[in-house]
Fold this sequence. Notes:
Elements: E1 2-7, H1 12-26, E2 30-35, H2 47-56, H3 61-79, E3 82-85, H4 117-128, E4 134-138, H5 145-155, E5 161-164, H6 169-172, H7 174-180, E6 185-190, H8 193-203, H9 207-213, H10 217-231, E7 233-238, H11 242-245
Parallel strand pairs: 1-2, 1-4, 2-3, 4-5
Antiparallel strand pairs: 5-7, 6-7
Amino acid sequence: MRWIYISPHLDDAVLSAGGLIYNQTRAGMDVEIWTLLSGFPPGEISPFAQSLHAQWGIPDPSDLIRARRAEDLAAAEIVGAKAIHFDFLDCIYRRGKNGEWLYAEIFVPPHEDEADLVAQIADSISARLTPEDQLVCPLGIGAHVDHTLARRAVEALPRPVLYYADIPYLFRHPLEFAQKTDGMTRDIHQIEEIDLRVWLDAMEKYASQLGSLFESPSVMRAQIREYWLAYKGISLWSNFSARAVFGISHL
């Protein structure tokens, strides 16, 4: 049995569940992190994407994706997981049917031009799965368009799913957390201090992103430790009628 953590971007799974992943791998479990939206953008990028690249300090898109993939490989190695990178594009690089840029912000619903993207992602995930695999995907807290698409793609597959809370969006949108987990069953997976320490070390490998996700490394560590202390573990949620709860029947 493999545990497959679905990560929309090149950091989400480790940021959100790195302590549990390490706890599982040091117990001898087979864990993989599948990052969906980690492809190389062809040609020019939008003004919005350019502004984010400037913030991250790497103007060239190919250089940025290579750097982020390297960060993810390093973080995955620390927590003992295998990293798999898919070639779908991050929302900041995607165009519509007429060639227009689809997203000038990221916390929005999926664009109508991307009605087929959920099925494409679901097919790519399904092609790599075995019947014994356990899928774990983000709840979609914060309504990042790519997290929403990732969850919808996983829920399009005819198999049970577990969910992790999206960090850092969990800390920013605590009220939304209740809505996203309504009707679900919570299972707390206990992790130890060593798992927490390794989790924090792995998070710091995402150097290009941490400045835009947390106020500072010390704040990041404090928030993660507080999250861990609440239960001395990491929660996963299950909901076998998630298709109806998340409202994806029309896609």
